[in-house]
Predict the structure.
Amino acid sequence: MSLKNVFSRRNRILLRELVVTDFKLRYQGSALGYLWSVLKPLFLFAILYVVFEKFLRLGRDIEHFPVYLLLGTVLWSFFTEATINGLQSIVSRGDLIRKINFPKYIIVLSSTVSALINLVINMFVVLGFCLVNNVPLSMSALWVIPLVIELYVFSLGIAFFLASINAKLRDVGYLWEIFLQAAFYATPILYPLQMVDQFSHAAVQGIMLNPVAQIIQDIRFNLVTHDTVTGWQILPIWAQYIPFAIIIIVLLLGAYYFNKNSKFFAEEV
Amino acid sequence: MSNKPVAVKVENLSKSFKIPLEASSGLKQKLINFLKGKKGYRTFTPLNDVSFEIHKGDFFGIVGKNGSGKSTLLKTIAGIYTPTKGSVQVEGTLVPFIELGVGFNPELTGRENVFLNGALLGFSHDEMESMYNEIVDFAEMHEFMDERLKNYSSGMQVRLAFSIAIRAKSDVLLLDEILAVGDEAFQRKCIDYFRSIKKSGQTVILVTHDMTNVERFCDRALVLNDGKMMGIYEPPEAKKIYEQLNRVRVKAQKNGFNIEQRWGTKGAELKSITLNHSNNAMQVLKQGEPVTINIKLVSNQPKRVIVGLAIYDESGLVLSGPNSEKYAVSTTDDIAYTIPILPLNPGVYRLRVALYAENYTEEYDHIEEAVIFEVEADDGPHHGKINLFGEWSLRK
C-alpha cells in the first residue's frame, strides 16, 4: 500500500461513492431523514440538562456544564460509532470483496468517514448550544479542528486493527462492545475530573494518558470552559506525549496488520 | 500470434484454501482445537500448477466442469484471491465480471445504483453522468430509474447491470458466464456484445462450460480438470477433450442404483434394470437401432403394478415418459419396454424407473437415476435432442 496509490483517482471515486451510499442508506425509511443527525444531539442535550442541572449535583462548579457534557458524549459517540462501523465494515461488505478487487482500506475509510460526517453535523449543533448558552468563543476554538482529526486518526487505527481480526474471529465484535462500556466510565465523559482528584491525583494522571480523554478534555478546554482539567496541567512534560505516541503506534500497527491480512479477506468473509 | 505482446501471464499458479472442519470462526472452537493440538481445518487445493500466456487481442476461453477450479482461477487472475504459489501478471488494467451488478443495493434507486456500480468499475461521477442516458436507453428503463431497485424484477436488474457493464473500458476483460442469466432476448444482446468486442480486438478471458460460446468466439481455450491443466487448444480440439472429460465422469459413476435417490413404500421392489440385457457400467447405444429396457421386479405376493419410465437429458429435460398398462405379476417377473428405433441424438441420458400400485394409489419403488447411458451415431451433425428419421427430397 504505497501512499501514492492511497488517493489515486480510482480510489477517490470509489471512496466518495461508498460514503455517499452509506449516508443515503443511514436514514432510509425514516420520515425525518437527515434531520435525525441534528435531532439526536438535541434530545441528548435536553436529557443531560434535566438530569445534571435539576437532579444530580455533579459538576456544579464547572461553567456551562450541560454543554461540557454534551460535547463529551458527542465525541464519545463518534469514537464508538467509528470503531464499531470500522470493525464490521470488512465483513459487511463481503459481497463486494468476493467479486471485485479493490483496495480494502477504502471500505474501512468509507465506514469511518460516514461517522466523521455525523460528528461534524453534531459539532455544529454543539456550537449552536455554545452560542445559546453565551459561551465566549475565542480563536482558540479553532483547536477543535486538529483535535477532531486526531480523534479520527486514532479511531481509524483501531478500526483497521479490529476489522482485520473480525474477518477471522467474529468474537471480537462482542469483546469490543464490552471494552467500550468499560472505557466509557474510564474516560471523563460524565464526571468532572476535579471529583476524581479529591480521591487520588495519580488516578487523574492515569486517566489523562488515554488518548480519547486527552482529546475530549482539550476540545472542552478550548471550546467551552477553562474549568476543564487537561493533561497539560497535570502531567509531567514527558507524559504529555504518551497519548500521541499511543495514537501513532495504534495507527501504524493497525495499518500494518490490516495490509498484511487484507489479501485473504476474500476467502475469509 | 506469438509475436503479439503478452497481456496476461500466469506462471505455475496454485491456490489452496483452509477449510474449517467445524464452524471454527469462533474463539471457543479455536481454543478447543488449540488445546487438543488439532489444526481445525483441512487444506483444499482447487488449482494446481497452472501456467499460460494470453496475448493482446486474444479471445481466450477457460473451460471446465463444475468444481474444476475455473472460478478459482478466474478470481485469482482478477486479484480477488492471492496465489498460494506462482504468479499472475496482468499488463494494464483488468475489469472482472464475476457477477453483474456488483454492489447493487436494493434500497437505492436505479439511478443511484448506476453511479455506485459505475464507481466500482472505475468511472467517476461526471463520466457516469455523461453516459447515463445511453445506459438507460440501452436498458430500456426510462420510467423506472427513480424507483428503488428492490421493486425491479430480476430481469430488469440484469438488464440495467449489463448496460453499465458494457461501458467498462479496460485492457483485459474477464467474463464469467454472464450469458447464463437472463431471457433469450438478453442472451442475444450478450452475443451481440461479444461479437462487437471480438471485432474491436479487445483482450478477453471468457470462463464457461458452454462449448458453443467457445467455438463461436474463442481463439484458444484452456481446459481445466480437477484443478489441473489439460492443455490449451483450438476450439474444436478443446470441445473434443471437454466432451471426453464429461464421458469419463459419467463412467466413473456406479451403475448400481443411486441409493440417495431411491424411495417408495416397498410394496414391490425393482430388482434390476438392464438395457439390451447388458449390465455394463456405461452403456453405449446406437441411434436407429432397437433397444430393450428390461425391468426385473420382486414382490412378496402377487399384485397388479404399473411401471413408469422417463428418459431425460443432462439438463433434466424429460424426452419421453412412457407408462405401462396394469400388469398382474407374481412374486418375481420381468417387464420389458422395447424401442424399435432409438431416436435419440448423441449425448448422455438417464433413465428414471418407478413402480406403482394399480391406479397409482401407492408408489412402491422409485429410482431417480436407474441407468445412465450414452447414445452414438454414425453420421452428423446432429442438432437438437431427437432424430425424427425424416426424409429430405428435392422436387422439381
